[in-house]
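Go through this chain for my students:
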Amino acid sequence: MAEACWYVVHTYSGYENKVKANIEKTIENRHLEDQILEVRVPLQDVVELKNGVRKTVQKKMFPGYVLLNMIMNDDTWYVVRNTRGVTGFVGPGSKPVPLTETEMFNLGIQSANIEVEFQTGDTVNVVGGVWKDTVGVIQSINQNKQSVTINVELFGRETPVEISFAEIRKM
């Protein structure tokens, strides 16, 4: 089987998150989870000064671009290329060119996988992100995305939430 690489897709400016959501929905509908592994809109923290108040906000590192970790074949190319808001892959002509290891490192994309000591059914504590200090039971583990799905109580209901490996600790 072919190796997954990172590719860059050009989008209409301001449509990056919409394109990301559309591609993720298509991946789910067409069951391409094993071919298109991750869709990213790279963000960076920027300190803004408004009315004398310092505020940290997240801004897009590359407006108009979305990163994809995928196995390039006719199906995946077609799905991504025909997503509303996508103008094309970055590369000469219509041929997508994968990012090199150096380019990925400079973007902060680590290619090494994190080995985890937990498994489905383990209770974990979220130590970072939006769900910090939440306790949940692991429902599934996705090694490709380096994340787990846990159930959290939200408005009195159990809701599945995807959390990065880096943001959880085994209890």
Summary: Residues 82 and 88 are 9 Å apart (CA to CA). The two ends are 37 Å apart (CA to CA). DSSP finds three helices and eleven strands in the chain. The mean pLDDT is 85.
